[in-house]
Structure to design on (580 residues):
């Protein structure tokens, strides 16, 4: 009997202990991982969720059933129309972000101007972007909202937005609302510059028109900007899935970057020892185009390059400019903004160049790419990239051209722009900007990785003379000309095949080894041709078959002669050496 009682007691005690242990575990979890904060923010979000499109009676912002709900916008517009205007979002940032107290400047010293430009955005999506921003931004900081309709087909959208928002704003009187409509399509770069010109706050935030800011997005960014006036920041972008519009967690282990063809890329970053995941980190480029910067620095940098057209490249250019001219870029993982990454462009790219030139250009591009046609989006991006390469890459622009040979054919014909004159050379002098090389060494070491199988490229120089191809096919002549001439040919040396080729004509420098007097000639490049194989001996270029060296003994005459170590006339230098 007593044995049974004893066992029962033991069971009871064990039960009580287990319950206690579990409670203790819960307390530890709540305290350690800031679950209390999350529970509180969850409740607040639930309250916010009441802001529903239907309840707001902004029914005209719902556009009904197009035949193809996705084609027009590249996301599920029907679903957007039916979701709450301001909806509950999951907390995607690290739990430690909720616990932190941010050191914020006084609101009167940190007024924020938000610039949103859009072209053919779905009404409900644009409204969600704006209402979410207003409801999740501390009122005292949100100084003004500048909305620019970039020539959308839905001409009434902006007017009804203005009517509704002005009425809704009547009681609180803030933020200041500025609405503008471009009568013709001007592109997002022009429009964002225009927004910045109209702005009067201390800080600018550029936002796409299909975004949802997450709770507490502003404070972490503001803290960094207030700490260091040279810094510009991006949040971590949380992807919103275009089909289901579900809000996902963005990756805080990525930084923004670009390659030599000036395409944007996410780059992996490695956490330093003891570096917390939530800590702000330096990034070669912004998180796409969503960035916050002090208005003063933006204008000091002369804004986005106004020569860039329609879409693409502007934030990469700003990033390069910022790094080279004394600034810094940080991504701040405690700040989260959702963005719909669309699978394709949702708009046309009107080519802005003169019609005649455009046709000529398209024909040339077609030839250049062996019949592969560039569409107008690609042509616009290529032109914008060429402008950036020419403006900031110094001698490294040859790498850009090596990867994008067709960019050479694109006429730049930079039209005078209505915005204040934009001259990169002047900006460099004014702000004492560093050469591009510095960025490669200190900011984006990824760019140093050598490209494919090229070992050197750019102009090929002997003393003050550069190797140049004159005339037109088939009467081509090899010459040595002044390196400052417009016609200096760019050469590539291919590491594995040893071919020395011209970038423009795609011809290779060859030697007929069987001839009595070996002669230099230019011929179409063919893989595996011994005649076209060159070796590098320091700065000498030695032909593999004849063992003769390229020589310039008479200053303006290119010959082959026996290799003489240290002969100045046999020393040929490329503008750019690739790292092995
Ligand atoms: C990425 C950037 C965007 C910008 C762009 C390159 C992100 C999240 N977004 O855009 O900020 O840097 O690359 O330029 O990284 N728009 C106009 N006029 C036009 C074309 C577009 O106002 O002629 C608007 C458009 O409605 C949208 C914004 O500009 O609000 C960006 O365009 P997008 O969303 O189509 O391009 P996305 O997200 O690929
Ligand atoms: Mn976008």
């Amino acid at each position: 009997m007593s044995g049974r009682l004893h066992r029962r007691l033991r069971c009871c005690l064990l039960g009580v202990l287990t319950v206690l242990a579990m409670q203790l575990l819960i307390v530890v979890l709540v305290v350690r991982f800031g679950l209390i904060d999350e529970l509180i923010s969850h409740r607040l979000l639930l309250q916010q969720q009441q802001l529903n499109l239907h309840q707001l009676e902004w029914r005209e912002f719902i556009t009904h059933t197009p035949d193809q709900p996705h084609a027009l916008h590249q996301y599920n517009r029907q679903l957007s129309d039916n979701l709450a205007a301001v909806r509950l979002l999951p907390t995607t940032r690290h739990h430690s972000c909720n616990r932190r107290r941010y050191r914020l400047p006084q609101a009167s010293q940190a007024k924020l101007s938000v610039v949103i430009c859009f072209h053919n955005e779905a009404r409900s999506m644009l409204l969600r972007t704006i209402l979410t921003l207003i409801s999740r931004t501390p009122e005292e900081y949100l100084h003004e909202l500048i909305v620019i309709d970039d020539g959308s087909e839905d001409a009434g959208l902006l007017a009804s937005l203005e009517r509704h928002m002005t009425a809704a704003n009547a009681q609180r009187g803030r933020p200041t609302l500025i609405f503008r409509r471009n009568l013709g399509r001007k592109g997002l770069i022009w429009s964002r510059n225009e927004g910045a010109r109209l702005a009067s706050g201390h800080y600018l935030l550029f936002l796409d028109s299909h975004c949802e800011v997450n709770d507490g997005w502003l404070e972490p960014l503001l803290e960094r900007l207030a700490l260091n006036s040279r810094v510009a920041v991006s949040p971590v972008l949380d992807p919103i899935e275009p089909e289901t519009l579900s809000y996902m967690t963005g990756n805080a282990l990525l930084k923004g970057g670009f390659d030599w063809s000036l395409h944007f890329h996410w780059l992996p970053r490695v956490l330093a020892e003891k570096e917390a995941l939530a800590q702000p980190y330096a990034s070669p480029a912004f998180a796409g185009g969503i960035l916050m910067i002090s208005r003063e620095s933006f204008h000091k940098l002369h804004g986005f390059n106004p020569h860039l057209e329609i879409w693409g490249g502007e934030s990469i250019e700003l990033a390069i400019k910022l790094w080279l001219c004394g600034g810094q870029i940080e991504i701040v993982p405690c700040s989260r903004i959702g963005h719909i990454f669309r699978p394709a462009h949702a708009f046309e790219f009107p080519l802005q160049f003169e019609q005649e030139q455009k046709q000529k250009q398209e024909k040339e591009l077609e030839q250049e790419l062996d019949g592969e046609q560039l569409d107008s989006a690609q042509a616009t991006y290529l032109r914008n990239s060429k402008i950036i390469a020419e403006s900031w890459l110094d001698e490294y622009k040859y790498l850009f051209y090596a990867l994008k040979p067709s960019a050479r054919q694109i006429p730049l014909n930079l039209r005078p722009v209505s915005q204040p004159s934009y001259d990169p050379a002047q900006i460099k002098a004014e702000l004492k900007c560093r050469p591009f090389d510095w960025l490669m060494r200190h900011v984006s070491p990824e760019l140093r990785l050598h490209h494919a199988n090229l070992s050197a490229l750019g102009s090929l120089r002997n003393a003050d003379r550069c190797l140049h191809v004159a005339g037109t096919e088939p009467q081509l002549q090899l010459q040595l000309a002044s390196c400052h001439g417009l016609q200096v040919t760019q050469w590539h040396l291919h590491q594995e095949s040893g071919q020395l080729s011209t970038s423009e004509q795609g011809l290779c420098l060859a030697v007929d080894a069987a001839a009595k007097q070996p002669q230099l000639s230019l011929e179409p490049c063919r893989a595996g041709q011994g005649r076209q194989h060159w070796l590098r001996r320091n700065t000498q270029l030695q032909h593999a078959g004849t063992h003769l060296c390229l020589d310039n003994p008479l200053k303006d005459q290119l010959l082959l002669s026996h290799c003489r170590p240290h002969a100045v006339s046999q020393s040929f230098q490329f503008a750019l050496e690739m790292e092995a």
Notes: The CA atoms of residues 52 and 325 lie 45 Å apart. The two ends are 85 Å apart (CA to CA). The chain has a mean pLDDT of 86. Residues 117-119, 121, 150, 185, 187-188, 191, 208-209, 237, 288-290, 310-312, 314-315, 339, 346-347 surround UD2 (ligand 1) (CB under 6 Å).
